[in-house]
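thought: fold this chain, then report.
action: predict
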Amino acid sequence: MNLLSQLLSRPNPQSSPKRRRVKGIELKNDAEIATMRQAARIVATVLHEISQRVEPGMTTADLDAYAEARIREMGATPSFKGYHGFPASICACLNNEVVHGIPRQRKVIRAGDVLKVDTGAYFDGFHGDSCITIPIGKISTEAQRLINTAEAALYAGIEQVKAGNTLMDIAGAIEDVAKAADFSIVENYVGHGVGRNLHEPPSVFNFRTRQLPNIRLESGMTLAIEPILNAKGKHTRTLSDRWTVVTLDRSLSAQFEHTVLVTDTGYEILTDRDRLAS
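observation:
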């Protein structure tokens, strides 16, 4: 999510003042968490299925059509479609595309590509949000290392999630993984709270900074943690479609994201694809 947009975000005006909040961040109760688990499971299911079915020759529009159909089949609506005017149900980014790629029929997926798919589902008043990066066929050693590092950075951040820790604990763990591999972190796009709204406070940054509030985590917070790593420089630009963001130096980019619940003793990954069989 764009950092400026996150800072300007406001809670849902229909939210009741009786709901538990900490510094404007809504804490979910058990019933709300149960609903979020269902929204998140839909997202995890769609991403898992896409990762299994995508192949060279398909287009990103093909994947978008599949994702929308599956989200609706499972009783939810796509979180992204129509959000601030976004025209699709997934963001699909290839190679040097960083975020917010619009699926198109002319965007053909080829062997050797690095594909990022980000999607969300709105179910019974709550959103789930997740992103994966998929290697298409045989990719370069460096591309695979970038993908592995981006995923490792996400899980390093998640390991810091528990009541009493801070957003800086998450950010520092992510940054350390990226720096150790000599990859850069995209700083203009950060994670966010997620729940009744797709994007809620707080900004979940992926690098050490004093420019954003270092919130202490509390049980019941639900966060979308989403580090984006570039193979070379961190700088980006937005294309003329006003959505698709690419690396300025045309280097590869990779991203992983999970919706995560903060608990008293740690965390629960609500969009965990490994739990789908359970």
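thought: worth noting. The two ends are 31 Å apart (CA to CA).
final: tokens above.
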